[in-house]
Specification:
By secondary structure, the protein is an all-alpha fold. It is built from 12 helices and no strands. Helix 5 crosses helix 6 and helix 5 crosses helix 9. The radius of gyration is 27 Å and the shape is globular. The termini are far apart. It is found in: Cell membrane. It comes from Hypsibius exemplaris. GO terms for molecular function: G protein-coupled acetylcholine receptor activity; G protein-coupled serotonin receptor activity.
């Protein structure tokens, strides 16, 4: 019997071994579903708030809008499908859908990181060249930057992805769904794309944040020295309130950038460590891959809440919308009844005089 069982184990194919893998516990899957739904709904709330509230449609806010689009796409395509993979420990939905899912998963993640890098560069520009920034910071500029983000992300992702799917697709098993770290060529492997479309934006964010911090510290010290003389002549300087509002808005944007950078470092450092170990140590660990990737995903869950913390107008709009008392809808519903009450009061007075 022992010989028979050993022979049976020897004839089990890799696909059959995957099918025999124990499933992930429902407690973990339930937590991941909650994270996925929270990501989708929170980012959708940001999108809806921008549509409903004209005050939010500033050039810088368009970048936040694009970040919410990318993060919501991560929730819709990336997280939802990775939950299936996490539960089964294999991919049950076929090779073609795997190809679609993985492309849009990488696309959303790369677009989110690219948008963060553009936000960091935007803040550095505003801090170091304020006059130039106020002159050229237009909605048109923001729209062009958003278009470039998606073009660059596609350009960095498509060539290697197409090559791998066309010439390396037979390498994968029936129940596999991943991009082989040891692909046929370096440029067509996921590690190249990781460092190009994820590692590079990560580095840009850190460098720009450091430059912005240093610049604002210098400006803050200079502002402190000039504060008392400015108060003495404030009554003849009508631009002082405008400058104060502008400075307050820049501080709010910097606080938001700080929170985004902290979340970025905490969420993405484990993933980059895993990729480095895979590159230089040949590490291939399914559990470590899943854990680090889910942690990286979590930034897309956190981002919309950071927007609300640092943007009072967005927070107020989102609160009204979630309570179902959006001011436009309320006025449309209440106004007719108010008019009817007013008309009835006038009618009663006229009858009284009559």
């Amino acid at each position: 019997m022992g010989n028979v069982s050993s022979n049976e184990n020897a004839t089990i194919s890799p696909d059959e071994k995957l099918l025999q893998t124990p499933h992930t516990s429902w407690a973990i899957i339930t937590l991941l579903i909650i994270i996925c739904l929270t990501t989708i709904l929170a980012n959708f709330t940001v999108l809806a708030s921008f549509i409903l509230e004209p005050r939010l449609r500033e050039p810088f806010s368009y970048l936040l809008l694009n970040l919410a689009v990318a993060d919501m796409e991560i929730g819709l395509m990336g997280m939802s499908n990775l939950i299936v993979y996490t539960y089964f420990h294999y991919w049950p939905l076929g090779y073609r859908y795997c190809t679609v899912w993985m492309y849009f998963d990488w696309l959303g993640v790369d677009a989110s990181l690219a948008t963060l890098s553009v936000i960091a560069m935007d803040r550095l520009w505003a801090a170091t060249l304020p006059l130039s920034y106020r002159r050229y910071n237009t909605t048109r500029k923001a729209q062009i930057l958003i278009g470039l983000i998606w073009v660059v992300v596609h350009a960095g992702l498509l060539p290697g992805w197409i090559y791998d799917r066309l010439y390396h697709g037979s390498y994968y098993g029936t129940y596999d769904c991943y991009w082989d770290f040891n692909g046929p060529t370096v440029w067509a492997g996921p590690l190249y794309v990781v460092w190009l479309t994820q590692g590079l934006p990560f580095a840009i964010v850190l460098v720009c944040y450091a430059g912005t911090t240093i610049t604002l510290q210098k400006l803050s010290r200079g502002r402190a020295h000039l504060e008392e003389p400015a108060r003495a002549v404030q009554y003849v300087n009508s631009t002082a309130p405008v400058a104060e509002r502008r400075w307050r808005k820049e501080r709010q944007a910097f606080i938001l950038l700080t929170l985004l950078v902290v979340a970025l470092v905490l969420a993405w450092t484990p993933w980059f460590v895993y990729c480095a170990l895979s590159t230089y140590r040949g590490l291939d660990n399914w559990l470590m891959f899943m854990v680090t990737y889910w942690i990286a995903y979590f930034q897309s869950t956190v981002n919309p809440f950071l927007f609300n913390i640092c943007n009072p107008a967005l927070r107020q709009t989102a609160t009204r919308m979630l309570r179902g008392v959006w001011i436009g809808r309320s006025s449309a519903v209440v106004a007719p009844s108010s008019l009817q009450q007013g008309e009835s009061a006038v009618t009663r007075r006229e009858r009284g005089h009559g």
